[in-house]
Recover the amino acids of this structure.
């Protein structure tokens, strides 16, 4: 996965949400160093059948800025956490009854 800019990640996630329901409040956005583990183990997202997306940012600052944009401006679910230099991936998933946020 090649690193992308903040605006590229925001655009791709917004497009993905639009194509998969379009209601930002039904989505969770976060950042991590291990997107697969976070999505499929921590949050219980199903790899096949659930709507999810992950993108690599250029650095942890960009990743956290993207999360802040979605949580603060678009009102997705998500939470502020202490920034770590390993948090290079932004992920989003549509919240379902079986997922954990």
């Amino acid at each position: 996965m090649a690193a992308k800019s903040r605006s590229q990640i925001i655009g791709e996630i917004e497009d993905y949400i639009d194509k998969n329901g379009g209601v930002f409040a039904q989505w969770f956005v976060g950042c991590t160093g291990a997107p697969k583990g976070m999505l499929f183990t921590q949050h219980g997202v199903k790899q096949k059948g659930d709507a999810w997306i992950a993108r690599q940012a250029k650095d942890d600052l960009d990743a956290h800025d993207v999360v802040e944009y979605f949580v603060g401006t678009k009102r997705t679910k998500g939470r502020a956490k202490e920034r770590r230099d390993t948090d290079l991936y932004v992920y989003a998933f549509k919240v379902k009854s079986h997922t954990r946020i």
User: Anything to note?
Assistant: The chain has a mean pLDDT of 95.
